[in-house]
Amino acid sequence: IDQPQVLSEREVASIERQQTAMSAPKAKVAVLGAGGGIGQPLAMLMKMNPLVSDLSLYDVVGTPGVAADLAHIDTAAKVTCATGPEELSKALYGCHLVIIPAGVPRKPGMTRDDLFNINAGIVQGLCEGISKYCPKAWVAIISNPVNSTVPIAAEVFKKAGTYDAKKLLGVSKLDVCRAKAFWAELAGVIPAKVDVPVVGGHAGVTILPLLSQATPKVDLAKDKAKALMERIQNAGTEVVEAKAGKGSATLSMAYAAAEFGNSCLRAMAGESNITECAYIESNVTDLPFFATKVTLGPDGVQDVGSLGRLNELEQENLEALKAELRGSIQKGIDFVASGK
Ligand code: NAD
Ligand code: LMR
Predict the structure, then answer these.
(1) Ligand 2 pocket by C-beta < 6 Å: which residues?
(2) β-strand 52-59 against 289-297: which pairing, if any?
(3) Where is the active site (predicted)?
């Protein structure tokens, strides 16, 4: 007699995920900057996502090659490509999720803010397109400096009358990936068993990992916690220096953005309890934008998590990051107001 098969919790969760994927409405996802170091692997990972029905690749150069290459992967997502501003409407029309890794990356010695002069205008132009051609889409911004480019996007959408704060998300997930990877090493467990909230912004001291809230708990002396916090804050620079002039994190960023994009699509499809850390318009602190853990729902951010209890080191860092983050936010707002 056949024994009834008992499924593990993990197997049940996997079947439920597959069922959700199969019954979910399929989405059109655009990657703007699809020819770049992040854009290409991100586009590949989104091509492999069963929630994506249409994958729209946009860049100012190089999209036909990337699209032809990805179109030969035997997954369902249909790949289309568009090149240059005159084809932006085609890229964006009907999109549910737009992910933006367009713009220049850092070289050694630069700060993310040094990218502002070039990337601010790029993000502004792309967001003007979004407000015209897919004003209801979720928008995930990767282009640096994220602390300023997200406020830029918000101002562009406000000007166009299409702003929905719940659907504008700055992608700070790479900070969480790094924090989890480093914490897992320390705790001696696999990263999937780890949770580390990272709040604040996405540049240097504005990146605030809340190690006192990390699980599993590890007892760390204050100097060790400070060193780990600083490693997470400087992890982007660690990659920039290792690449020695050939750009910044691309593969880990593509992974982080693909996971983040997947969370957005699952929430859009009606799955509940989807949480991510994201840099959003917020009233958790006295700053107008701030990254915290959020719960995503079908219409975007549903709940914004509180900061919880901070230890002394984290409290000091929170106070110290405010001036820089406030300045970066205002710089973005002023850029759009100046009409440049
Ligand atoms: P890259 O130079 O390899 O690629 C950028 C791509 O953007 C290029 O293909 C370029 O042609 C394209 N582009 C330029 N102007 C454009 C426009 N107007 N419209 C569409 N596409 C345009 O750079 P990358 O390594 O992919 O990095 C891209 C951005 O992502 C940088 O600003 C970098 O600092 C940022 N970044 C952010 C994070 C994060 O955690 N948020 C992590 C890594 C990198
Ligand atoms: C990162 O954190 O890797 C990115 O913001 C890229 C950079 O310039 O460090």
Answers:
(1) 105-106, 112, 144, 174, 236-237, 239-240, 248-249
(2) unpaired
(3) 202 (proton acceptor)
Six-digit token string for 330: 């205002």
Ligand 1 atom index nearest CA of 170 = 41
Q: Which ligand is nearest to the CA of 250?
A: 1
- CA atoms of 253 and 308, how far apart (whole Å): 27
DSSP 203: S
- Report the nearest atom of ligand 1 relative to the CA of 171: 41
Residue-wise pLDDT for 273-296, tens only, equals 999 999 999 999 999 999 999 999
Packed helices 39-47 and 251-268: angle between N→C axes, nearest 10 degrees: 40
pLDDT tens digit string along 220-250?
999 999 999 999 999 999 999 999 999 999 9
Indicate the pTM of the whole model: 0.94
The answer to ipTM > 0.90 is: yes
What does the block give as tokens for 114? 């040094």
